UniProtKB/TrEMBL annotation:
Presence of the UniProt keyword Nucleotide-binding in the record: yes
CDD domains according to UniProt: RecA-like_protease
Record's keyword terms, sorted: ATP-binding, Nucleotide-binding, Plasmid
Name assigned to this protein: ATP-binding protein
GO MF terms, alphabetically ordered: ATP binding
Keyword match Nucleotidyltransferase: no
Matching PROSITE patterns: AAA
Organism: Azonexus hydrophilus
Xref: SMART domains: AAA
Length: 315
């Protein structure tokens, strides 16, 4: 099929809301593109995301709507930059999940609770999503600060509802900013909210203990030292995600460059140093340079002439 025919067919089936045919045309285009094609990469990425985006929303229990977000994992584990020690622990965790039946048969519990700690912007949410993607499970995200601020006075019952709703089917339940309510300081002081915070902590500890192992609980905190020790003890794994060192930065940069082979990230971009930055900060700086490079290349072309540029999806 010629390129113009593919475009027309794609437009027609999209207007007819014929999703299956749209997918077929995209696959046809992909098969005719060289391996180094940015179009091939972007279409493959879109196709891998589309089914899960719809399916995960449908999997969200009705009782959890408004309290929990069903999110599509953004990256695979292979694309996630981790310290070597954490990478080894993740592999152990996934291997034990893969052999859950054998572990159960021996009378042992299967680990299913992971605590992530580290400064903001260094991959805690990304890792939770990568685990969900690796296990082909929906990712349900709860933000403690949002739930508490919205429902203070009945937060304990809301959290209990979240946990009990999540057990309906296998999933990854991600709890961010756990120190917001599960700190050592909860229950101390003269605040009128102390009683409510005590009830929240007690409720959450009880619900964590009750959680069946077909639900993967991933907790995240920016300040592990603030968490109540009783909370930390309830997790099977504890992984720290620090700010990246120089080796991690360079490894991340090589991974990123593979996603955009038409942009000379490794050869033309000024050197990127760790300098105490988070991975999120580094990614923002690299994407900024990529955008400027594309604009400069476009500005250098003679007036009236255009040349295809790779689509740069900057998220």
């Amino acid at each position: 099929m010629a390129k113009w025919q593919e475009v027309l067919a794609l437009a027609r089936y999209a207007l007819e809301n014929n999703r299956d045919q749209v997918v077929n045309i995209c696959r046809c285009i992909i098969s005719n593109e060289p391996d180094s094609s940015s179009l091939k990469y972007q279409l493959n990425r879109l196709l891998s995301r589309a089914p899960s985006m719809m399916a995960f929303q449908e999997l969200l229990p009705k009782d959890l709507k408004g309290l929990v977000l069903a999110m599509e994992p953004g990256m695979t584990l292979a694309d996630t930059e981790l310290p070597v020690s954490v990478q080894a622990q993740v592999e152990i965790f996934l291997e034990e999940r893969a052999h859950a039946e054998a572990i159960h048969a021996a009378g042992l519990a299967v680990p299913h609770k992971v605590l992530l700690s580290g400064p903001p912007g260094n991959g805690k949410t990304t890792l939770a999503g990568a685990i969900a993607k690796e296990l082909t499970l929906p990712l349900f995200v709860v933000d403690f600060s949002e739930v508490v601020s919205s429902y203070l006075g009945e937060s304990g019952s809301k959290f209990a509802k979240i946990f009990r709703g999540a057990v309906e089917k296998p999933c990854v339940l991600f709890l961010d900013e756990m120190e917001t309510v599960l700190s050592e300081r909860a229950g101390h002081g003269n605040s009128t909210e102390v009683g409510e915070m005590k009830r929240i902590v007690s409720t959450l500890l009880m619900e964590i203990d009750r959680l069946p192992d077909h639900v993967i609980l991933v907790g995240a905190t920016n300040h592990e030292e603030m968490l109540d020790r009783a909370v930390v003890r309830r997790f099977d794994f504890y992984w720290e995600l620090p700010r990246p060192d120089e080796d991690m930065v360079q490894s991340w940069l090589r991974r990123f460059a593979k996603r955009y082979p038409d942009i000379p990230i490794l050869t033309a971009m000024p050197a990127i140093a760790a300098d105490g930055k988070s991975l999120s900060d580094i990614e923002r700086d690299v994407k900024k340079w990529c955008r400027r490079w594309i604009v400069e290349q476009a500005a250098r072309r003679p007036a009236g002439k255009t040349s295809p540029q790779p689509e740069l999806v900057l998220q």
